[in-house]
Amino acid sequence: MINRRNIQLIAFIAIITFSIEARSQEKITSVTPIFKDGLAQVVPEFSDKKTWINHQLWVETEFDTDGDGKLDRMHVDVIRPCQTDSGLKLPVIYISSPYYGGLSLSEKLNWDVDHELNSVPPPREFHDEIKTRNKRLFLFNYHTKIWVPRGYVVVYSSSPGTGFSQGSPTIGGDNESLAQKAVIDWLCGRANGYKSAKGDKKVEAYWSTGKVGMTGTSYNGTLALAAATTGVEGLEAIIPVAPNTSYYHYYRSNGLIRNPGGYIGEDVDVLFDAISSGDKSIREYSRANIRDKEMAEGMDRIKGDYNDFWASRDYINDLGAVKAAMLMSHGFNDWNVMPEHSYRIYEALKDKVPTQIYYHQGGHGGAPPVDMMNKWFTRYLFGIENGVENDPKAWIVRENGNRENPTPYEDYPNPDAEDVELFLTAGDPVKGGLTVNKQFDQGKETIIDDASISAEKLAKAEESDNRVLYVTPVLTKPVHISGVSSIKIKLSCNKPAANLSVYLISLPWDGGGKKNINSDIITRGWADPQNYRSLTDSEPLEPGKFYEMEFNLQPDDQIIPEGQQIGLMIFSSDSEFTLHPKPGTELTIDLDSTSITIPVVGGKQAFESAVE
Q1: Is the peptide bond before 413 cis (omega within 30 degrees of 0)?
Q2: Which terminus, N or C, of the chain has the lesser number of Cβ atoms within 10 Å?
Q3: Which pLDDT tens digit goes with each residue over 511-551?
Q4: Among residues 66, 72, 267, 334, which one is catalytic?
Q5: 288 DSSP 8-state letter
Q6: Which residue is catalytic, options 157, 159, 218, 286?
Q7: In the annotation, is 419 catalytic?
Q8: pLDDT tens track for 437-454
Q9: What b/e string do you get for 262-271 counting C-beta neighbours within 10 Å, with b at 16 or more?
Q10: Does residue 573 carry a pLDDT above 70?
């Protein structure tokens, strides 16, 4: 029997316990993000990773792409400070990826590129599938370590048909945009999340403020842009790093079948196989309906024309709903996802939403400095008025510069850059000239194709029948190129089809010696002369007939030092990027009707001053 004194003692203990818990609770929830100089600071109470809460769930989407008659669910992994279980709500940094379930880079997946143009390629071989993971997926903890201590929740998800996510990979299809939208809807309380892939026990994002930012590199950066194209409420800012913004521009170039650098023979169906790491029970359906039907019927490895299949995987066609602020990042010497991918989206959005662009002189990847990203996310996710929207729009790492210390510019291209047209003077098989003065009666010069000779070897050769090369005088002053160069060319071919490769180079070729390792190549581009009229309409060339075409090279911002020469090299097959037909195809260039236009800071006057 409990007497009155015992009841009083129990009540007293309960009051004391409640008081202690309340004070403990008050101490936890009093921890909040800290800001200084417009940046979110590292908070000691958020920094002990042993106290972080990590859990996974599945978010229901609005599509079914694996044919099971049920809405696909995306696997989501959450890492958040423990204080979010005591009433603290925080914004979210979200990264979506096809890579968390593994990636196959076997060259056995790739197409054979050793065949004639306009011909059916040899059938593609296949190898063993990616093994299904049973354990927790691999995550890029780089983002966790940066953002959780600064007061963000970090969320990861696997894209459709990869890792533990349901659905089918489509390589740029609508479901890859809607998958991220579903996760953001869940973070904002508008979609359902579940504790398991097939269960009905719901999970809520009670710790989310409903403000989301996305980032990621390469495919992950593509998915950030894809999410923004849906116009989903709550996605406030994106920082895509080297994103693929058009699968046509990734696997084709001005009508030409061209693989990304370093992945000879890769195409959209190869990437499908490389990332298909989802449940094996749904892979057969995905292969049959996506890879072997939609892709096989639409990708076209014979003509290489732009068509409805490619248009549906080109994000520039889906920018109408974008509301998120965007900081874009890319390398000028990224020959995998080439710099045009970021530039074309930046140009399309810079008058519509807050935008900035960060370029470095390196290759694939390379995020902006952490403080730059921090300032961006602090402004748009926490709402701190730090003035980032008034900062310079372009940040460029100069040659041999520190990526943490880019040079600010009013915009990209440099507003002081003006197009300078350079004309050719004869010189084959050694070297011709490049001059600002229009030339006449220069005649014609011929290239003999040989895919076995590398572009580097052609550029270094004193003379060659396999390329034509035209150079400026030796520069007496630096020349700053900023923007997009373009070529006008008039040519004929002795066969119905030919590859066309154009390089703008800095000579003498150094091979990464005293100069910046990437500075031998200023910019380059590729085209199919059969597409001289348009990207959507190609026709076999009539041997001996001359055709005129014009196309852009890749964007660049580079200062060519004094003592160098700027060279225009034109050749046919590029061993690293194009198909490899048998040697012997001849391309003849009409010199009087061919010119290269380069954007020079200071315009024609600055260029002429540098070549005096």
Answers
A1: yes
A2: N
A3: 766 555 567 999 999 999 999 999 999 999 999 999 999 99
A4: 334
A5: I
A6: 218
A7: no
A8: 999 999 999 999 999 999
A9: ebbbbbbbbb
A10: yes
